Amino acid sequence: MLKLSHPIRVDMHSQEETMGAAESTTKESFRNLNSDQLEAFRGNIKKVTVQDGLTEHDFKKLLPYWGNFGLLAFSNLGRKKGLKKDRLPLSVLVYQANLLEGMASDQAEALDALFDDKWPEALVACASNALQLSQADSSALLAFLQKDKSSNLTNMLTANRLLGELVHLPFKDLLSSKKSIMPKLAGNTTLLSPAAQLAIRAHLPMEYRDKWQLLFSSNQHGSSFSQMAQRVDGQGPCLLVIRSSNGRVFGCYASHGFASGPTYTGDSLSFLFSLAPIIGIHEATGFCKKYCYLNQQQETLPNGMGIGGSDGNWPLFLSEDYGKGVAYANSSAFEKCDLAGEKDFEIHTFEVWRVGPLPAVKHAEKSILDKDPQAQALLELAGKKMHSTAYRDPAPLLSDDEEE
Questions:
Q1: Average pLDDT, the chain
Q2: What predicted TM-score, i.e. pTM, was given to this entire model?
């Protein structure tokens, strides 16, 4: 429970009310915040003032990562609450934090009260200062938020998953929240900027957001399709990230990963993404059931790695002849997008990241007998001994050290 020198109540009931009634009002008014968050808020406020209210100087000291938007918020809250003094009641500030931890409609109310129509710039400023982003990353995030032209902020907060993550940043430190909105990368990347990581992470299932393992990097493992396929095969949900020779950066999230063979894996949780020159997420339409595909050294089937296509019409496909790919702008599997800016592209840099833990059952390399069960049945009928069964499972691609 938040306990300050004066009871905090959003409705500003008279001081003559009993403490029990005040505490009940506080609990109801700040129902989105738990007792630990309220206590953390109280402790952080006490570091800058012991008064029942914040001056403009106190506000800037308490919320330094808001930058100039702190002054805007202080002015807006004072004006909209009709306050004539130079102190902002603490309850008003706590109420905004409570709203930002609530439903989309609550969050929209808080953003409007704090920042008016400058809320995209304010959220990006908070993210930039809290996460120490570069100017390029800040600009990329702002452009991503401003792409949505909806006039209804509540709908935007519901639909835009990255916005739904960023909205918790303004009061993150005051609530002593330790939850990170950045993934922990096990490996080095030259393609995934912090802004790109934020955008992709927000669109992943919750269980796949926090730990990403590098499976393949053309910078580290060379330009070999077979090497890449071996390291990716059966490793579970993953991200493909490509920089083409024309400087574009793009890729896809494969919801079930890639399994070598003539069949498709994955579902409509898969999506495509653009990272440069602008960030964009392109969701599955649900019109197509063919998602993630990996095959090689076949005479009649496509040889390569792709998603959402077949018969030469792929929104993204990498040829077994390493270095070449195709990306069709019009695909029924995903929202319309032009990932590469050209139908045929050349790979400059390529990375694959597993998201989440290693699957409990690793994909095993198939014996020729598994690939042709009729041949196996004929050998068994002929009484032939199955010599190859002891050699089917390859050694793990990633050692325990690499996993860490």
A1: 84
A2: 0.81
User: Does the pLDDT at position 402 exceed 60?
Assistant: no
Judge if 278 and 395 occupy the same domain. no
Query: Across the strands, what pairs with 307?
Result: 292, 316
Domain count for the chain, please give it: 3
Q: Which residue has the higher pLDDT, 298 or 201?
A: 201
- Distances from the Cα of 95 to the Cα of 56, 86, 88, 214, 325, angstroms: 18, 19, 12, 42, 52
What residue has token string 């790109």? 196
What's the confidence (pLDDT) of residue 258? 96
Shared-domain flag, residues 235 and 155: no
Determine the Cα–Cα distance for residues 132 and 117; give it in Å rounded to an integer: 24
Cβ neighbours, 10 Å, residue 390: 8
> Which residues span the domain enclosing 156?
19-166
Residues 162 and 52 in one domain: yes
Q: Residue 238 in 3-state DSSP?
A: strand
Q: Report whether the peptide linkage leading into residue 359 is cis, meaning its omega lies within 30 degrees of zero.
A: no
Co-location of 248 and 155 in the same domain? no
The mean-pLDDT minimum among 83-97, 162-176, 375-389 falls in 375-389
DSSP state of 356: S
Please name the residue that has the structure tokens 């198939």: 366
β-strands 184-186, 211-217 pairing: parallel
Give domain status of residue 2, yes or no: no
Pairing of strands 316-319, 280-283: unpaired
Whether the CB-CB separation of 366 and 235 falls below 8 Å is answered with: no
Of residues 276, 232, 228, 221, the one with CA closest to residue 251: 276
Task: Yes or no: say if 354 and 212 are a contact pair by the CB < 8 Å rule.
Answer: yes
Q: What are phi and psi of 273, to 5 degrees?
A: -145, 150
The mean pLDDT value for 20-25 works out to: 38
Tokens of 89: 């009641």
Helix (H) or strand (E) holding 186: strand 184-186
The yes-or-no verdict on residue 375 having pLDDT over 90 is no
Task: Please tell me the predicted confidence (pLDDT) of residue 387.
Answer: 44
